[in-house]
Amino acid sequence: MTSPKTTKRPASTRKNSLYRLRTPEGTYLDLRTLIRESHMKREQYAFQPFHHGGIDGLLVTGTVAHGPAGWCGMVKSLTGIEVDEENRSAAGLLLVRTQQAVYTLTYGMGHHLIDPFRLDWDFGLEFATRCLDEDGILLVRRQIMDSRGRTDENATTRGERIADFGIERVGAIVTKISGTVSKIPLTYLSSGTRRTVRVVSSDSSIKLPIASTPDELLSDLHAIEDVCARPDPIPELGFIDRIRALRGKTEIVTTLEAKLEELLADPDSPRLAIGVPSECLDDYPTTETFQISKSTRTVHVQDLELSDLLHYVHERPAGSRLSALKDVRVQMFSDVACDVPVSGRISGHRWLTAEVTHSGGRYFYSQGRWYEIGVEYLASIEEELNELFSRAASVALPPWPRHFVGKDAEARYNEMAAEQDGYTLFDKKTIVTPKFRGGGLEICDILGPQNQLICVKQSKDKTAPLNHLFAQGTVAVEALRNDRQVREKFLAALPGNDTGDAPVKDELGALTLVYAILLKDGVTISVGSLFAFAQVSLLQAVHRLRAMNARVEIVTIRRC
After folding, report:
1. 41 with 155, same domain?
2. What confidence tens digit (pLDDT) does each residue in 451-496 have?
3. Which of 220, 186, 178 is nearest to 55 (CA)?
4. If DSSP states are collapsed to H, E and C, what string results for 178-194?
5. What is the CB neighbour count within 10 angstroms for residue 274?
6. SS3 letters for 340-385?
7. How many Å apart are CA 104 and CA 108, to the nearest integer?
8. Which of 6, 171, 258, 495 is 20 to 30 A removed from 400 (C-alpha atoms)?
9. 105: part of which helix (H) or strand (E)?
């Protein structure tokens, strides 16, 4: 008799935010010192050290009653009905030691209890860049490194490669990335019934399902520590890891802070702006009131402006302005009466962005840290190009005969290449619309067997022909996507259109654009063989095309 097959019970987990705290004095410090001093004095909170199931730590719990909800008075004014509802906020904070670090699990409003100066701001991204599935990226949020204080976000509902987001890899700091993880021994994956787990990593935290038993929790923490100990990030995510803040009180940091002191004297400086701390970004758009306080003075504003911050510091003597700004506290509330906080009391300097120049270099101040702008530029270009050049192409093109020379060389090559089964010649078949009157628009030179738009160019020792090639492809895809007349005329020109067998359908879908290039002597397209300006031009085109749902491929044309 065959015994019935048993199914392993899924492990018990709960999605939590996990923080790693900075403890230079060692992990066996008094864990109470990691809590905000103001909360230590509140009688609503209970502080309970514990040792249970191999876990050593501190549990902090409490519920704060904020009094009548701020909207009660307005409702009574509108309806004449007496309303007396109370706002209450529950908070839980679990501090856990390992041999390597102290970690914090937060519940409800518990994250407000952590001393922000203890947060390890490299933790979340250090973890993500070393274990996220390369084809499972769901969201990327970036802080642009200039004085506009701008943040952008790219998201998708299904996992994709980071390259498919079409984001610029330089000039910005990634502050949040979400994706799937499948190859680390987390409790959530231990039953074997789940193949991936979704993880959200911000600069200082990781949000993921965490085990709810002591031994499994320690196992999860050790798995996370093992990931963070990996010396190198995943190659595709290396550009995130590469942008590091300037460390310590070095000579350059001291010089930059002196320049920032000068800027802080001018509330109208174009090099300063409000920058939203990463932990506040999600609630920032719906915040009703900002509470700004310093010492005994507190003001409330509906929109936080740079002048609200600098009011406390710009008239102070040089050398004391930045320290004064650090003493300012900004807290967000979801109501006008400031009964329902949606953030902790964040230090004022973390709400400031600044752009400073020094000795020909450009530096960016964000969330209390300095970054050098452009230090990662060349490495990021090379990394992204290598990834592009190593991608297998979906078309095959013949070698370029050496006797194809002169003005008609490209035309002769296109005709020859289009003679392959499934390929169609489009060279010189321009589309004329009122927008493109000057000779019309050439969509591609050759149409591939799976609808690939193939653009061909010969370039011996100049950048200009390649710049023209990259622009041709970008303009063609943009026109097909956005100009109905161009799209209709292109579809009408396709073979098989009159019989309904055209290989490209009306909706176009995801396009593939192929840049087919013959360099001098037919050398392989690589970072070393492509001209420097052409490298930048190519990447700019690739980013634009990806944003239009177009895949880019590079094909080296050989000589024969």
Report:
1. yes
2. 899 999 998 767 778 988 998 899 999 988 888 888 888 888 776 6
3. 220
4. EEEECCCCCHHHCCCCC
5. 17
6. CECCCCEEHHHHEEEEEEECCEEEEEECCEEEEECCCHHHHHHHHH
7. 13
8. 495
9. strand 102-108
Are both 216 and 303 inside the same structural domain?
A: no
Question: Of 283, 275, 278, whose CA–CA distance to 304 is shortest?
Answer: 275
**Per the domain annotation, does 139 fall within a domain?**
yes
Answer with the residue of higher pLDDT: 138 or 314: 138
* Domains held by the chain: number: 3
Same domain, 355 and 255: yes
Strand-pair category, 453-459 with 446-447: antiparallel
In sequence order, what DSSP letters do the residues of 225-274 get, joined into one string?
Answer: HHHHT-SS--GGGHHHHH--PPPSS-HHHHHHHHHHHHHTT-TT-TTEEE
In 3-state terms, what secondary structure has residue 46?
A: strand
Show which of 373, 401, 424 is a domain's final residue: 373
Max Cα–Cα distance, the chain, nearest Å: 93
Say whether both 410 and 536 belong to one domain.
yes
Position 496 scores a pLDDT of: 62
- Residue 436 pLDDT exceeds 70: no
Q: Is 413 helix (H, G, I), strand (E, B) or coil?
A: helix
Sign of the C-alpha dihedral, residues 94, 95, 96, 100?
positive
Helix, strand, coil percentages for the chain (3-state, nearest 5): 30, 30, 40
Let me know whether 366 and 394 are in one domain: no
In this structure, is residue 89 part of a structural domain? yes
- Residue 367 · residue 275 · CB < 8 Å: yes
Question: Cα torsion at 135, 136, 141, 144 (round to 10°)?
Answer: -10
Residue 412 to residue 416: CA distance in whole angstroms: 6
pLDDT at position 437: 56
Pairing outcome for strands 352-358 and 272-274: antiparallel
Question: Is residue 6 over pLDDT 80?
Answer: no
Asked if residue 144 is part of any domain, the answer here is yes
- Are 322 and 218 contained in the same domain? no
Residue 273, CB-side half-sphere exposure with 13 Å CA sphere: 17
How far is the C-alpha of 356 from the C-alpha of 371, rounded, in Å? 10
Among 270, 284, 251, 236, residue whose Cα is nearest residue 370: 251
Task: Kindly report which listed range (315-319, 406-410, 528-532) carries the lowest average pLDDT score.
Answer: 528-532
Q: Retrieve residue 509's tokens.
A: 């879908």
User: Do residue 403 and residue 521 come from a single domain?
Assistant: yes
Alpha carbon distance, N-terminus to C-terminus of the chain: 70
CB contact at 8 A, 65 and 183: no
255 and 160 in one domain? no
String of DSSP letters for 184-234:
S--GGGTTSS-S-EEEEEESSEEEEEEESSHHHHHHHHHHHHHHHT-SS--
- Between CA 442 and CA 301 the distance in angstroms is 55
Residue 280: domain span: 251-373
Q: Which of 355, 373, 391 is the last residue of a domain?
A: 373
Number of H helices, E strands in the chain: 13, 23
**Confidence category of residue 7, pLDDT binned at 50, 70, 90:** very low
SS3 331: strand
83's CB contacts (< 8 A; 6+ apart) are 72, 75, 76
